[in-house]
Design a protein that fits this description.
The chain has about 160 residues and is an all-alpha fold. It has one domain: Four Helix Bundle (Hemerythrin (Met), subunit A) (Up-down Bundle), CATH 1.20.120.450. It has 6 helices and 2 strands; from the N terminus they run αββααααα. A two-stranded antiparallel sheet has the order 1-2. A hairpin with a 2-residue loop joins strand 1 and strand 2. It is globular.
């Protein structure tokens, strides 16, 4: 597979996964925003998903910098188990758009050589090419949890097959 095809495929699937996450955020009833999805509140699972995806767009762990709007408590909002405060629906929807832009930039700047290089995160012992797939799986894993939670609340969400939808 050549580089342009890899980038197109990865970006298409990231767009689809992030669109599904955004739909979950928009569809979540207000009464369920703090409902438990496993150990954490609905909003917190979405926030976790976004800050991890955001972080993996950096070239290295050290290169990632928190954004004042999405990490009001600084880096500790992503590093500690719980962020400094509850994030609102509009904030998380805006964070999806921010992360989508960062994913596009991150994948867009990759070269054949950089994709063969180390992921850039000491706890991940694979290449940058695999890092993007790992991050994509992480988005879809948590989006699946949020979708299942919403289905139990009688709220339907749709499947998005690729970035063209």
């Amino acid at each position: 597979m050549d580089l342009p095809d890899y980038k197109r495929i990865v970006l298409s699937q990231f767009d689809a996964s992030l669109a599904m996450l955004e739909e979950c955020l928009r569809a979540c009833p207000a009464r369920s925003w703090k409902g438990k999805v496993g150990k954490y509140a609905f909003w917190h699972v979405a926030y976790h998903t976004l800050y991890c995806t955001d972080g993996y767009t950096a070239k290295t762990h050290e290169a990632w910098k928190p954004h004042a709007r999405f990490h009001p408590g600084g880096a500790s909002d992503a590093e500690d188990e719980y962020p400094s405060r509850v994030m609102t629906r509009p904030e998380l929807i805006d964070y999806v758009a921010h992360v989508r832009r960062k994913v596009r930039a991150s994948v867009g700047r990759e070269t054949s050589a950089s994709l063969r290089g180390a992921a850039g995160f000491p706890w991940l012992s694979f290449t940058r090419a695999e890092l993007h797939l790992y991050s994509l799986r992480h988005v879809q894993h948590h989006t699946g949890q949020l979708s299942a939670f919403l289905r139990r609340a009688k709220v339907q969400t749709k499947w998005v097959k690729d970035g063209s939808q």
